[in-house]
Amino acid sequence: EKEEIEHPNNSFSPCSLQDRKCLQKQQAKRVGNGNKMRSSGSHREETRPIAQGSCQSELHRALERLAASQSRTHEDLYVIPIPNCDRNGNFHPKQ
């Protein structure tokens, strides 16, 4: 089993060269992945529930309903309310 080493020249980046914010996120992601120890054999992700705010859990339910909806007309999709959440998963105040 050969471990794949990420080189800057061969790693895929979805960012354009002018998008500094995206490039910084990709750089941080690569640095974070480099610090993790790689194990040989089967690797399982730890699946523990992430604490979500009330708005984020409602948004997740709305997205699941959108994904499961069979009808694709605009009127049918407008029936599903999509909450306005902040970064912490809480509701934004009325704008």
UniProtKB/TrEMBL annotation:
**GO terms under biological process:** regulation of insulin-like growth factor receptor signaling pathway
Give a GO molecular function annotation for the protein: insulin-like growth factor II binding
In this protein, which residues make up the domain named Thyroglobulin type-1?
A: 55-95
Please tell me whether the keyword Phosphoprotein is annotated for this protein: no
A Gene Ontology CC term for this entry? extracellular space
Enumerate the UniProt keywords alphabetically: Disulfide bond
Start and end residues of each stretch annotated as Disordered:
1-52
What InterPro entries does the annotation carry? IGFBP_1-6_chordata (IPR022321), Thyroglobulin_1 (IPR000716), Thyroglobulin_1_sf (IPR036857)
User: Protein name, please?
Assistant: IBP4 protein
Q: Which organism is it from?
A: Nothocercus nigrocapillus
Gene label: Igfbp4
